[in-house]
Amino acid sequence: MKAAVVLMNLGGPLSREDVRPFLTNFFMDKNIIAVPYPLRWLIARYIAKTRSQGAAKTAYAALDYKSPLLENTKAQATALEAALHNKGIQAKTFVSMRYWHPMAKKVVQDLEEYAPDKLILLPLYPQFSTTTTGSSFEDFWQEVQAADGKLHARWNDEMKVGSIGCYPLLDGFIQASADNIRTALAKAPAGSRVLFSAHGLPEKIIEGGDPYQMQCEKSAAAIAAAAGLQDGAWEICYQSRVGPLKWIGPSTEEALHKAAHDKVAGVIVYPHAFVSEHVETLVEIEMEYRIKAGEMGIPYFDRVPTVSTHPLFIGGLADAVEATINGQPLPKICGNDFRRCGCKGKI
Prior knowledge:
The chain has helices at 19-28, 37-52, 55-61, 69-86, 104-114, 130-147, 150-155, 171-187, 203-207, 212-227, 252-261, 279-295, 311-325; strands spanning 3-9, 91-97, 118-123, 160-163, 193-199, 234-239, 267-270, 301-303. The chain is globular. The chain contains 13 helices and 8 strands. The strands form 2 sheets. Strands 2-1-3-4 form a 4-stranded parallel beta sheet, with helices on both faces.
């Protein structure tokens, strides 16, 4: 049995010239801007042009116009492949990015050549959202159908396909996160508060049945318990708001204001909806929120690194892949209210 595991992630620009087309691809996604194509095309081009000359240009300039996301994801793929081999599983990992290269079309071509017996899709988003995992799944299968080659034929025949739509309570993810937080707390002054900062979403997406916010809250609570955090020593918040729509909250900036008002000894921010470092962690949190915290009078600020290639996290992913290959998917945690849950196949 020969398996292929496709690690899916957002993607990011690799040069200054990539910023605008990357943003165009992002805002062209109907899961991001839910309007008919002609209007979405105009909106995407306008936003991409504006942001590539403004906020996005400033953010990516801090990274020398090269997102580390691809490099980080490749490192995770290499570590996962080794962990699977240690389990006696013949598997090859592939990296597929949603909005920049390598994208699904190229990955499908590579899979055609590899010809796996089993295919596992593994998005690097612990919590499911239609805007991330759902979009990645949809895009991948569109490229499979468009290719209409051996992979498509075998997908409809003997090849077994599995997907890991979410893993907000995966033990390896929870324990690796708690380990990183404990390391940060050991350096922080007593009485510091941990902010679990996830990427935000417009409220209307959650109201449409998307389970992301619920899963983010469950992840944060589980990680806090594993790290030994008491009530009042941590809070969940949401970052990266853009546009005029009302977003889920509290925002990370609001959480910082609250911490300043409460005169905490310090703030530690952990981006628990990210498993790889990129512009939201290395610039938005590490630089922008650090500056804001200082301006608010918060005496100590630190950012907890993502789980990345932490052995507990990679081991947890390997366990999940093995279980999926053996027809034992992870337990479902979404109730009937979440009609856009990935486990239900309704994205």
